[in-house]
Each structure stands twice: as structure tokens, then as C-alpha cells.
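User: I need a structural model of Tripartite tricarboxylate transporter substrate binding protein from Allopusillimonas soli for a docking pre-check later this week. Nothing fancy, just the predicted C-alpha cells so I can convert them on my end. Input:
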Amino acid sequence: MIKAGIRLIAATVLCGMASLASAAGYPERPITLVTPFPAGGATDALARVLADSMGKTLGQTLVVENRAGAATTIGASHAARATPDGYTILLATNSTLVTNRFLFKKLPYDPDGFTPIGMIGIGPMVLLTAKKHHYKTLADVVKAAKDAPEPLSIASFGSGTSSHLAAEYLQDLAGIKLLHVPFKGSTGALPQLINGDVDLFFDMVSTGMPQVDNGKVDVVGITSQKRLSTRPDIPTIGEQGYPEFNLTAWFTLVAPPNTPADITTTLNKALKAALEDKAVRQRILEMGIEPADGSPEALIKQINTEKPIIEALVKRADIVVQ
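Assistant: Understood. Predicted C-alpha cells for Tripartite tricarboxylate transporter substrate binding protein:
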């Protein structure tokens, strides 16, 4: 079986031998940065921060183009069909490159076909609990779930989302049963948690923690293997008895299939320069995202580590594929 990472590496190497336009003088005109999410959201904000910084390094404008919908497949398929000349790139997520392959019977793009540019960062989720329960630790949640006559309810961004899969993962590892209640994003789920109409919710740091700071909900754990540097007070789920637990949202830059290696190298250098800029790093951290090193190798490792976990979770949850 050929792993996604191996295929991505091979694609990058082959790009260097492709008889396409040389990167000499690249870039000579603006670059389109496709983001498969709507304007105004967290991912759009991340794209614009990177576009501004990378544009200064490259000496050209990066124009953010929002092509949202269908679990990132609209934006991803558009970018996959673009001419591989470095003038269209994609801000991809774990949904784009990993989860969608297990949710859809047929994707309009090949998640293993993109040419990697580099890893941007990883954004963990936090496990929030309704204030009425007064849970202090994950152990309190697990005990309550095992003792309750009816399953505790857990909200999510929607079926098949990272929030839903985190709930399934917790059930597996802790040996508990939870009642999944899907919503259309955090804006639908958070009010129900605040009101006490649902018991638990895995939410992104940027939207969930302000509610914790305002005293409206409680937090008992974070889904990454390491504590978030900007919120070191939140213990990981792993250190609370489940060391295998590591499920996050992550962000990366990729180019269309067969983009030449010299072009992606130029883009990678601009991405790394952005991630090394103190002001850019601080803005990304404020979004609840830990900046990565910008390398394509980090992306490849993330894909290959996550694929078997996500495949098993999707099957266990019996999520109906599209």
C-alpha cells in the first residue's frame, strides 16, 4: 500500500523534472490563495495573515479567494484543477487531505495528488462542559458518563467534523457512551452548552475559551499531545489518563498536482519567513494555533499518522458517506 506521504514526496521530486515553465523570475504577478472556508472565519483570518506576510517576501500580492462549502471540497477541487504554475495555491486542512477521503464515496479531487508547500500549524480543540455540572477534570466527566442512567449529550460542529470525531475518540478510549447532538458549527452548539441543554462540546480554542474566561462554561482538557503555549493551564486529555489521544485541526499550504519543485521551494521559503516573524507567530497563537516549522515533511508525517485513526473513527461512528 502506498502511503499518502510517499506519493506526495514522489510528486514533489517529479515536479523538478517536469517540462513546465521555469521558476526563473517567479512570481511575476499576483498569486491566488484559495481558502475553502467563508470570509470572516478563523481560517480566513489565518489565510489573510499569511498572505500579507508572504506577499512581502515574494514581492507580489497574495489574493485570498474564498471558495467555501461541501466540507472544503469546492475550494480543494478548484485548486486541484488549476494550472500548476505557482499562481494558485490552497490553504488545506485535515478535512481536505485526510477526513474527506473516508466521508465521501467519490471526491472531486485526489487528496494525495497535491504538491506540498509546508505545514502552517496545529489548532487543538478543548473539551467544554456545561457550568451546571461543575466538572473539574476529565475524570469527573468519565465517572459521570459511566454513572448516568442516560448517556451524557455532546454537541459537535456537525456529523463527520473534527468535533464529532473527537467525541467518538473519547468514547473509544474511556469506554463510555455519549449522545451525539450535531449542530451547524460552533455558533449553533455553544449557546446550547451555555444554557445547559447539552452537557459537553469539543470546540476550537478561539471560540470556546472566551466563554470559559467569561465564566459561562468550564474546560476540562485540550486535544493536542502538548499543552497550548498560550493556555498552559489547560491539561491535555493525554495526561489525564489517555496518552493515545491526539486529535486536532491543522492547516497547511499545498499547490496543484505537478507544480515544479523550484516554485514550491520559493513558496516554502516565503511561508517559513512568515512563521518565523514574531508578529505573525503571535497573531497565529492568538487564534489558538501552534505554528509549525513550515516544512512539507511535517505535513506528510501528520497525514500518515492521522489516516488510520480517522478511518477507524469514521467506521466506528457509522457516519454515512456522501
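Before docking, keep this in mind: The beta strands are 31-35, 62-66, 88-93, 115-130, 152-156, 178-182, 200-204, 217-222, 248-255, 290-291.
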